[in-house]
Amino acid sequence: MPQPTSDSTAEAQVSSSKPSPNSPAWLNIPCFSVPRAREFYASVFGWSFFSPPGTSSESFHPFKITDSVVMGALMKSDDAEGVRGTEKGKEGGIVVYLMVEDVNATLKRVVEKGGKVKQGKRVEGEHTELGSFWDTEGNVKSDDAEGVRGTEKGKEGGIVVYLMVEDVNATLKRVVEKGGKVKQGKRVEGEHTELGSFWDTEGNVVGILKWLF
């Protein structure tokens, strides 16, 4: 079972990593309860959590994924847009941030290619520029009512993040032990991929996969 590392270790990892342009860089995971979600992800996946100065770990708690440049944060949100979990009878929604070289230029291309700007460029702290958009599918993973929750259906879209694991069944077992629910048990796709998915403690849908080579 993976084990979480210390705050100091996580901060050292963060300072030495930066994703390449146009690759996933950050995951915002909305939560009803940040401590509950922190215990879930630390126990099931061994993610490292750290607390930046001046922030409350009860409402915002960043994490570093072991052996990856991808980072993210658990963020408390009580509204229907931020958390669309089991308590509200809807799917949860993880927001994926992509590293880009120019936020405004990227948002311009989004609009030119049929997407819509959700939030224009804003500056956060001293080192970060952010923006967000709906893609042409309203932020999409599949073409059914559960997978697509975009503008045509009047709801937020949802990208499903798949995490690489060593054992799909063992991971799903830990998910259940720590308060999550299995959405889809292990299945084999093609000759080289095992897949599964689950709801975390906050109602967010997360996928897991293992490559068989």
Automatic annotation (TrEMBL):
Region of interest (Disordered), residue spans: 1-22
Query: Which Gene3D superfamilies does the UniProt entry name for this protein?
Result: 2,3-Dihydroxybiphenyl 1,2-Dioxygenase, domain 1
A Pfam family annotated for this chain is Glyoxalase
Task: Give coiled-coil spans as residue ranges.
Answer: none
UniProt xrefs under InterPro entries: Anthracycline_SecMetBiosynth, Glyas_Bleomycin-R_OHBP_Dase, Glyas_Fos-R_dOase_dom
Please state the span of the N-terminal signal peptide per the UniProt entry: none
* Source superkingdom: Eukaryota
Domain Glyoxalase/fosfomycin resistance/dioxygenase residues, every copy: 26-126
Q: PANTHER family, per this entry?
A: GLYOXALASE-RELATED
Q: What protein name applies here?
A: Glyoxalase/fosfomycin resistance/dioxygenase domain-containing protein
Q: Which organism is it from?
A: Phialocephala subalpina
